[in-house]
Amino acid sequence: MPFTGVGVSPGRVLGTVRQMPAPVSEPPAGERLAASTSADDAVAALRAASKAVQAELKSRAERAHGDAKAVLEATAQMATDSMLIKSAVKHINAGLSAERAIWEASASVAEMLLNLGGYMAERATDLFDVRSRIVAELRGVAAPGIPASATPFILVAEDLAPADTATLDPAQVIALVTSGGGPQSHTAIIARALGLPAVVAAVGADGIADGAEVYVDGTAGTVVVDPGAEEVAAADAWATTASRLVDFDGNGRTADGHLVPLLANVGGAKDAVKAAAAGAQGVGLLRTEFCFLGRDSEPSITEQVEAYRGVFDAFPDKKVVVRTLDAGADKPLPFLTDATEPNPALGVRGYRTDWTTPGVLERQLAAIATAAEGSTCQVWVMAPMIATVEEAAHFASMCAAAGLTTPGVMVEVPSAALRSEFILGHVEFASLGTNDLTQYTMAADRQLGPLAALNSPWQPAVLQLIGMTVAGAVAEGHDKPVGVCGEAAADPALAVVLTGLGVSTLSMTPRALAAVAAVLASVTLDQAKHLAQLALAAPSAAAAKERVRSELPILAELGL
Ligand code: PEP
Ligand code: MG
């Protein structure tokens, strides 16, 4: 029986499974040396483990390039750092187990690094990685993180954290399968960004044996162990059809010439350069929190200016929509969010962090304004998680004070969709964050696999809220643009529906641009409107998707 989940990134491939190892648990506080182990033996074991970790990281560094190489080289040095090892040896001589000793030694060295601040503080994350690797080596279990392999493989995990995906090498990993995670989870977003076929919420897939041969269908959402002739033929066919997807010519439009600018979602300057090369007509979402993930102190204004300018420089004369920090829930930033909140998705996140940590947003707006000076970009700024008219008005006033003339809001909380007419009385534009709009409309955590079916932007209730947002934007007295920057925009069939609902721009991972452009160009605006009505009238998300897809034959032709 195949494992069935939700296909979140198209493609059909065959490959060998590598399971993501379980995270390394903390050795119990005060764990003592076993009676049968002498302190000398434990010290020798610790030294051997740290050397083994260093050798493994060095060999990975040799195979890596660019930033990843530099990080791996620096981390390898840390594994045998004399201060770290000396401190651990002291703990062992005081009677602690080697595992607990290295854990405690790392905690004190990390504290020292954090106190030094700046570059040194950022090394604390590498130190914690080394610590977990040494403990895994001492326990004789697989090292944490994405496994190393001499040959490309299909990565299977329960779910992937942003920190894991940062080290994911798309030349090594050819598909992603998770037993948890939802269609809007970080795993799904990263798979689409890297163009990797992916299936999430495939219950039981984390039990597939390491080394097993599997077939992954990222459109159908299936994973077949020991594939047969049918799957081999399907994978071969995909390899040929995928190459038929023409490059994006830089103009999103319907068959009858209705323009729908296709923009890119980016997390920093590097992404922006790639997005411009892929033909994106601008940036519809700069996730500024991605520039500073893993940081535990607020980035300085100078650092921020540099990060934003890097993005602006990639898009001269084009529009760049900067989203202010959206910390919280799946994207914690220790200097803004409280990790102990019982319900982080409903907590102090996004724009709301301005209430608990005032000043950060004001400084960020100042940095955006400074970066925009001297740039030829049209810089638009929007706040995440706006829920009320007062919040929109207050954000607009903060933008005005910073000299930013095009303030906007994300519509990702249902209350904002319902009140868009009034909200858009205060700001210049709205951008629909369909990932959060779906999780809040359906009351279904976007990170949870078992809720994947609820968490679909094809839900007619979500589509109805999108339609209401657009209707409010063209209500009497104003006519404001409404774009989409959630993952829904990257689904070519849904992109047609969104266009039919009146959305004016679509922002997505650059990998999706060619497919969305090709499918959009296959329908007229009237046909898109008809498909939008079809989806709205459907009794369920599955029926909406089915009905719309059956009217878009180009999807099957392109294998999408
Ligand atoms: C969204 O919620 O749709 C969105 C674009 O923001 P993020 O995925 O970063 O929460
Ligand atoms: Mg969001």
Automatic annotation (TrEMBL):
Residues 4-123 form the Phosphotransferase system enzyme I N-terminal domain. The active site is at H186 (tele-phosphohistidine intermediate), C485 (proton donor). The keyword Transferase applies. GO terms for biological process: phosphoenolpyruvate-dependent sugar phosphotransferase system. It is an enzyme of class 2 (transferase). Pfam families: PEP-utilisers_N, PEP-utilizers, PEP-utilizers_C. Residues 253-523 form the PEP-utilising enzyme C-terminal domain. It is found in: Cytoplasm. Residues 153-221 form the PEP-utilising enzyme mobile domain. GO terms for molecular function: kinase activity; metal ion binding; phosphoenolpyruvate-protein phosphotransferase activity. It catalyses: L-histidyl-[protein] + phosphoenolpyruvate = N(pros)-phospho-L-histidyl-[protein] + pyruvate. PANTHER family: PHOSPHOENOLPYRUVATE-PROTEIN PHOSPHOTRANSFERASE. This is Phosphoenolpyruvate-protein phosphotransferase. The lineage of its organism: Bacteria, Bacillati, Actinomycetota, Actinomycetes, Micrococcales.
